[in-house]
Amino acid sequence: MIFASIVVASFLIQVYFIVWALRGLKKLTEQPAANGKIQRQFSIIIAAHNEEKNIGKCLRLLSEQFYPDDYYEVIVAVDRCSDNTVGIVRGFQRSFPNLRIIEIQQVPVSISPKKFAIDAAIKKARFEHLLFLDADVAPSPNHLQTMNRYFTGDTSAVVSLMKFTEPNSFWQRFLVFEKLISWCIAGAGIGRQKPVISYGGNWGYTKTAFQIAGGFQTIDHSLSGDDDLLLQKMGEAQLPVVFCLEPDGWVRTAPPKTLSHFLRQRRRHFSAGKNYRSALQMGYFLYHVSNLILWIGWLFWKPAIILLIVKLMGDVLVVRKGNRMFREHFRSFSIILFDFLYLLYNVLIGPMGHFGRIKW
Fold first, then answer.
1. What is the sign, positive or negative, of the torsion defined by CA atoms of 223, 204, 285, 220?
2. What is the largest CA-CA distance in the chain?
3. What is the distance, to the nearest Å, from the Cα of residue 183 to the centroid of all Cα atoms in its chain?
4. Separation between Cα atoms, residue 349 and residue 265, nearest integer Å
5. Would you say 233 and 213 are in contact if contact means Cβ atoms under 8 Å apart?
6. DSSP character for 3?
7. pLDDT for 24 beyond 90
8. CB under 8 Å to 356, separation ≥6 — which residues?
């Protein structure tokens, strides 16, 4: 009887999160239209650590933006590179005059290297509006135009997507599914005005918002979290945050090529969770534990299979909503299959971000 009560409680927790996501995504679709007509000036900041294979393509695409040249600058914070990243960026300066370089040779031991690089670039930025890209992303020619439209009125931050190039294997397809769940959480949080997740490889905010939120103070020790943790601080300061729903404001990036690369990347991401506020940590814990209980509960209490089926139907509704909003294509059967793999992924890999030494 006690186990049955635990299964029912787990089901109710899952229903709560499903309703939370659906309502949040609905509110997100009701956010004011991106109709900013003022052409703002932007400082685009890229923190690059040994990115000689990627930085050239990114800079070329930024130099080809459909935006006035004198209305944006690109700052590459070259972080302790041992390859030819600096040489490639300098080569672009000859034809890309609004490109600047900041070379970082040393980083204080207690500070995240990426946060240190970003902070240094923000201090050198000429403009109030800041956009952040990873060196390995491909922005569209209309990227700046689109992000500019989302900075309407008093908007403090714009969260946008990093989408994988076309996956060519089953496990890469699962990574797209994992991203889609993340986007649903990010979008629902912003729709409910309780921002949780951002993506450091493609988002933007104002210098004023950065200062009001206290910058990276209190979170500068976390290797990851220049996006999530900072966004949460902005949410706590009640700063207006919006979500970019236009594909031209999204960027493309290649999926991890190897399992080890993927695990290292995800461990770094999960490590930021150690610094989430207690309520968020408890929410994630309850979600994953209740999900696990529902998946295995029917083995010990047969009626639990009905609760699991209802829960899966709710998950299908959330993912289908995400499909429409974020231009993905997952059918009901694949949603259920990936839902199970998503459980295993979080149960097995999630804790790895909380233990051991995390490398950049």
1. positive
2. 74
3. 8
4. 11
5. yes
6. H
7. yes
8. none
144: Cα separation from own chain's centroid: 19
Rounded Cα distance between 59 and 152, Å, is 26
The tokens describing 188, both together, are 């629902």
Rg of the chain on CA atoms, in Å: 21
Select from 270, 250, 321, 252 the least CA-distant residue to 28. Answer: 321
Residue by residue, DSSP assigns 34-47 as: ----S---EEEEEE
Half-sphere exposure of 183 (CA within 13 A, CB side): 27
The count of residues in the chain is: 360
Tokens, residue 132: 């952040």
Structure tokens at 327: 């231009």
* Cβ-contact 260, 204 below 8 angstroms: no
Q: How far apart are CA 223 and CA 219, in angstroms?
A: 9
Residues 6+ positions from 357 with CB-CB distance below 8 Å: none
Q: How far apart are CA 217 and CA 221, in angstroms?
A: 9
CA distance 140 to 219: 32
Interhelix angle 2-29/170-191, nearest 10 degrees? 70
Q: What's the rounded Cα separation, in Å, for the pair 45 and 123?
A: 11
Sheet containing 241-243: order of strands: 99-104, 72-79, 42-48, 129-133, 202-206, 157-159, 241-243
Its sign, for the CA torsion 358, 106, 131, 207, is positive
Q: Residue 221 has what pLDDT?
A: 76
Name the amino acid, one letter, at 318. V
Interacting residues of 134 by C-beta distance below 8 A, sequence separation 6+: 46, 47, 58, 162, 200, 201, 202, 253
- The helix (run of H) or strand (run of E) holding residue 120 is helix 113-124
**Higher-confidence position of 299 and 160:** 160
* Kind plus residue range of the DSSP H or E element containing 205: strand 202-206
Q: Which of 111, 8, 103, 108 is nearest to 48 (CA)?
A: 103
Distance CA 148, CA 36 (A): 7
pLDDT digits (tens, 9 = 90+) for 238-293: 999 999 999 999 999 998 877 677 777 666 666 666 778 889 989 999 999 999 99
Residue 137 corresponds to which amino acid?
V
